[in-house]
Specification:
Number of helices: 15
Number of strands: 13
Largest sheet: 8 strands, mixed
Structural class: alpha/beta
Radius of gyration: 26 Å
CATH class of the largest domain: Alpha Beta
Strand order of the largest sheet: 8-9-7-10-6-11-12-13
Number of domains: 2
Order of helices and strands: EHEEHEHEHEHEHHHEEHEHEHEHEHHH
Helix content: 40-55%
Length: 383
């Protein structure tokens, strides 16, 4: 495979620049970048006496995914400087004056790493399922967490990640009884270094097999989750996991809209109550003008469903001008027991109607099947 890698050289004099260019050209397989807007696969950077400031600059470039790899060139060869370069993420530390053999070896190693990364890139293109509530307290986190665990453990449908976008108020670690070492507020500080290995090491793993990425429990000191940051995070996760379940809460802000735009399916949870159905209408109206979030991608789910509800399914569908995709029966006792014990619903009661309904919903989201209507217009829990 003939691969050409882009390279940028930032050094302090013409002589070393010409020397490096000669060596690079003699190697073949490299091309020099044509514009400052192009992201180089490799940056060769020479340190000056003001190396502390330069390390901060390089660290920012690396964290923002502004470069593939970094080689450091320096006249100083002390151990502390070398350690600092390695911590910053530099792959090679070249001495100056240059040793041509050393430079060729470093470039050869870079090429091998780049080729191996290409060969080892996962072929998967994970599916994103965005969960949101028409109103607070409709059970979005409960459904999101249990669907993730069912897809991972009961359905054995592949690797599953569960991401909490509820900044400050995220509760997923409590629902799953896990203690993650990192949340996305910390991970996005190194967004440019994201790969499968980084994600799998940073995310907590639940016994069901679900990898958990919680939200920050406070805002101070954490960068904001911008739409661009979320796009980079989810793009990396799509290459790592087969399914990414996102608990988006009730927000329709920029980062959440970007998640919805990238999602394969959007599950909108609501209740058969006037406030919830009113909010559901408002959500549909808010999304109506967005071409990148088509309505047919949204699956409307009634949670805590009671057959003897004051509002019937046909009445609800008529009021919101939309078909209801699924109904999850009300089971307060089983749900609260699962939440308080930090266990999945299927471990609390495998035969409960809520368990069977959620399991069938997991199948429907995996396979794209809907609950089939019966003669009297009600839909079945299951397939």
């Amino acid at each position: 495979m003939n691969q050409s890698y882009s390279i940028d050289i930032k050094v302090k004099g013409k002589q070393i620049s010409k020397e490096l260019e000669r060596i690079v050209l003699s190697m073949g397989g490299f091309r020099f970048i044509n514009t400052h807007k192009e992201r180089p696969d490799l940056l060769i950077f020479q340190l000056s006496d003001d190396y502390e400031k330069e390390f901060n600059l390089l660290d920012d470039i690396s964290a923002s995914n502004g470069v593939g790899e970094i080689f450091i060139v320096s006249e100083k060869q002390d151990t502390s400087l070398l350690r600092q370069a390695m911590r910053m993420g530099a792959k090679e530390f070249l001495s100056y004056p240059l040793n041509e053999s050393e430079v060729i070896t470093a470039l050869t190693s870079f090429t091998k790493r780049a080729q191996q990364t290409t060969l080892n890139e996962p072929v998967r293109d994970g599916r994103i399922i965005h969960m949101m509530g028409a109103k607070g307290g409709v059970g979005t986190t409960t459904v999101a967490a249990n669907l993730a665990m069912m897809i991972a453990e009961l359905k054995n449908a592949g690797s599953v990640a569960l991401v909490d976008l509820n900044t400050v108020f995220g509760e997923i670690p409590l629902f799953l009884s896990v203690k993650p070492n990192y949340h996305w507020g910390q991970i996005i500080k190194s967004i440019g270094r994201l790969d499968s290995t980084f994600l799998l090491n940073a995310m907590a793993k639940h016994p069901s097999g679900v990898h958990v990425l919680p939200s920050p429990s406070y805002l101070n000191g954490h960068p904001p989750a911008t739409a661009e940051v979320i796009e980079r995070l989810l793009t990396a996760m799509k290459k790592t996991f087969d399914f990414i379940i996102v608990d988006g809460g009730q927000s329709l802000e920029g980062p959440v809209l970007k998640t919805m735009e990238m999602s394969d399916q959007i599950v909108l949870l609501t209740l058969l109550s006037l406030p919830c159905l009113h909010n559901t209408n408002n959500v549909f109206k808010s999304l109506a003008g967005l071409d990148n979030i088509p309505k047919d991608r949204i699956k409307l789910v009634i949670n805590r469903f009671l057959k003897k509800s004051d509002i019937s399914i046909p009445e609800a569908e008529d009021s919101i001008k939309s078909k209801i995709f699924w109904k999850i029966p009300n089971d307060y006792k089983t749900s609260m027991s699962a939440i308080n014990r930090g266990k999945p619903i299927y471990e609390i009661s495998a035969r409960a109607g809520i368990t069977k309904s959620l399991a069938a919903l997991a199948d429907a989201l995996i396979d794209g099947n809907e609950q089939k209507p019966v003669k009297n217009g009600w839909r079945l829990f299951g397939r």
